[in-house]
Design a protein that fits this description.
The complex is a heterodimer of chains A (343) and B (278). With 343 residues, chain A is an alpha/beta fold. Chain A has twelve helices and 13 strands. A six-stranded mixed sheet of chain A has the order 5-6-7-3-8-9, with helices on both faces. A four-stranded antiparallel sheet of chain A has the order 11-12-10-13, covered by helices on one side. Chain A has a three-stranded antiparallel sheet with strand order 2-1-4. With 278 residues, chain B is mainly alpha-helical. In chain B, 71% of the residues lie in helices and 0% in strands. Classes of the chains: A alpha/beta (343), B mainly alpha (278). Chain A binds chain B through residues 13, 59-60, 64-65, 68, 71-75, 92-94, 96-97, 99, 101, 103, 105-106, 108, 110, 112-113, 117, 120-121, 124-127, 335-339, and chain B through 6, 9-10, 12-14, 17, 21, 24, 93-95, 97-98, 100-105, 185, 270-271, 273-278.
Chain lengths: 343, 278
């Protein structure tokens, strides 16, 4: 039975607009123009226990709105939504006791308190019994390597350290579901790896369901078995990563390192998509020409040092998906910030 | 298992954590202390000139005025004359989302924050302020200007009870201002309006007995009287300790009304909430 069910969810925001400049500001005092933005325009999906789902889309596509609705923060205009059998915004308090949430751009820790005290405060807020708290804390501290950070005030932590502490803070009450809104944003490579490794272990070892929004396609490739792509408030694709690839394009890339710089490669079944001095990247359709055949033709015509075949990166796949289904990209790029002009 | 303490556990934890945190701001308290001593002197100088130039019978004696003014300066931080900057920042930046992810009542959470915010700075300032005004001033030969102790033990007890209700009333007003920020985002306008209403109508600037006769029934009925005027007059003996039930009733009735108003506004505000910054 699914843990999370979403059916035809709709959420609109009224965005007030005003023309720029002094005259626009004066006019705005008298008459305000409002425009309705469809942040969610009929979203449906279901998530089973233990899934690790990536939720991706451009800024303003509706990712955060979905997460905030599932977390019980926003009330949608229409549609059905149940998490662990509860309607999040109707039974908010009972609901949030059973989920963990991390918003990558904000911390849930108390800025002036040492990390330990923030944890203790959360223990009391979530009414976690002392024994359960100690077990959860010790496990999280070990997994995320937090021992050296526990006595540091949160404001003195680096972003990567803070994110590790934030992850622990979201899990002290052992929720079966974890929502992560851009958990790797702004992190360096080492911290990203630590965060990814932890999410994967949490999902595999504890069976925690994880819903993750991100702009970092490496997060998706490293973590997610299932990817939901949203654009302009609608779901564009939902399925395994491999299905997403094959749905959008069969294309593969052959990258060749030439011995001599500046040569160009011409082949009837492949197109050059990038060329640096030594490196040429060819796109081809494996159903028109087999990789072995293409490699044979290229290697017999040119002296090469190295070559490899790969799938196009997920960014490219997603960009093509948007290209196919969203002729008007400008609406999708709109951010939900009603106090600013979005012209 | 006793459910009682567990029910209140989150709120107690928040009050105590924030209280301890706010106690760290000693430098701000010291700066505030000097500002308030200065204001106390300015206000009392005006009253002295006023009382000397007039032979008419006044509704309060100068000694009562002096105690009233110093108490006001000592307990200024307890008045809901400013908004909680943390809540304002949370609403502005969208961090309020995390507050909604907590399995506790949001009104209770904000009320708990208000209690810590109205008590910790008050403790830091009130103690030195009272010492200076009650012991320091007579040593300087300003016996008339001092903060005099209550005329009777009963007055002190009555003041103590009223002060607890002042805290609750002040927190209900503070929380209401914080909730209004869900609509105004910035909240500057509401805060300025609130500052003006609270400082003037509570008796902070001019003790309410000195207001004109026609205004008396109005200012006495408003909630602001319960913040300063009523408890302070119990302290100075301007109203007798026997009147404490009426004072408490006034304070608690207004607290209840403001809590009900605040809760209904909050639940309406949350339905239309737009989390800033996506």
């Amino acid at each position: 039975m699914p843990q999370i069910v979403v059916e035809n969810l709709v959420k609109t925001f009224r965005v007030s607009e005003r023309a720029s400049g002094l005259w626009g500001a004066v006019r705005g005092l008298v008459r305000r123009r409002h425009r309705t933005v469809w942040a969610l325009n009929g979203i449906s999906f279901a998530i089973e226990p233990g899934e690790l789902v990536g939720y991706i889309g451009p800024n303003g596509a509706g990712k955060s709105t979905t997460v905030k609705t599932l977390a019980g923060i926003l009330v949608p205009d229409a549609g059905r939504c149940e998490v662990l059998g509860r309607v999040p915004w109707r039974e908010r308090i009972a609901h949030v006791a059973r989920i963990g949430v991390v918003f990558g751009q904000r911390t849930q820790l108390w800025w002036d308190l040492p990390v330990t005290e923030s944890f203790e405060l959360l223990r009391d807020i979530y009414r976690v019994p002392q024994a359960g708290y100690e077990a959860a804390r010790d496990e999280l501290v070990a997994l995320l390597d937090l021992t050296p950070l526990l006595d540091t005030p949160v404001r003195q932590l680096s972003l990567g350290q803070r994110m590790r502490c934030d992850l622990a803070a979201a899990l002290l009450h052992a929720p079966p579901i974890l929502f992560l809104d851009e958990p790797t944003i702004g992190l360096d490579a080492v911290s990203k790896l630590a965060v990814r490794d932890f999410i994967l272990r949490l999902n595999r070892e504890r069976g925690t369901t994880v819903i993750l929004t991100t702009h970092d396609m490496d997060d998706i490739e490293a973590l997610c078995t299932r990817v939901v792509v949203i654009g302009d408030g609608r779901i564009l694709s939902d399925g395994r990563l491999s299905e997403l690839r094959s749905r959008v394009t069969r294309e593969r890339w052959l990258t060749v390192d030439l011995l001599e710089p500046g040569q160009s490669i011409h082949d009837p079944d492949a197109t050059v998509i990038r060329q640096d001095s030594h490196r040429v990247c060819l796109a081809f359709d494996p159903q028109r020409v087999s990789p072995a055949e293409l490699i044979h033709r290229v290697t017999s015509a040119h002296a090469i040092r190295d070559l490899f075949v790969e799938n196009p990166p997920i960014e490219t796949i997603v960009a093509r998906l948007y290209g196919q289904s969203l002729p008007a990209r400008d609406t999708a790029a709109l951010r939900i910030q009603p106090d600013r002009s979005s012209a | 298992m006793d459910r009682g303490p567990d029910l209140l556990r989150p709120y107690v934890a928040i009050v105590s954590a924030r209280f301890r945190m706010l106690l760290q701001y000693r430098a701000a308290a010291l700066a505030g202390l000097w500002t308030q001593i200065f204001f106390g002197f300015v206000i009392l100088s005006i009253y002295e000139a006023f009382y000397r130039s007039s032979a008419a019978e006044q509704p309060m004696t100068f000694r009562q005025i002096a105690s009233y003014v110093w108490l006001g300066q000592a307990l200024l931080a307890m008045l809901p004359w400013n908004a909680d900057d943390d809540v304002r920042a949370m609403v502005r930046t969208g961090a309020v989302a995390y507050e909604l992810c907590r399995p506790i009542d949001l009104y209770g959470l904000w009320f708990a924050r208000a209690i810590a915010r109205r008590t910790a700075p008050t403790v830091l300032r009130a103690v030195p302020m009272c010492l200076i005004a009650s012991i320091g001033l007579p040593l300087l030969g300003l016996d008339e200007w001092r903060l005099a102790p209550p005329p009777a033990l009963a007055s002190a007890v009555a003041f103590g009870l009223a002060l607890v209700c002042t805290l609750l009333l002040g927190c209900a007003l503070s929380t209401l201002v914080n909730i209004s920020m869900l609509w105004t985002i910035g909240g500057e306008g509401t805060v300025i309006l609130m500052t003006a209403l609270v400082t003037f109508l509570s008796g902070m600037i001019v003790p309410l007995p000195l207001f004109p006769d026609w205004a008396q029934p109005i200012v006495r009925a408003l909630p602001f009287a319960g913040l300063v005027d009523l408890p302070f007059r119990l302290f100075t003996g301007h109203i007798g300790p026997g009147e404490v039930p009426g004072v408490l009733l006034h304070q608690l009735a207004w607290t209840l009304a403001l809590v009900i108003l605040g809760r209904s506004l909050l639940s309406r505000g949350l339905k239309r909430i737009v989390v800033q910054g996506g």
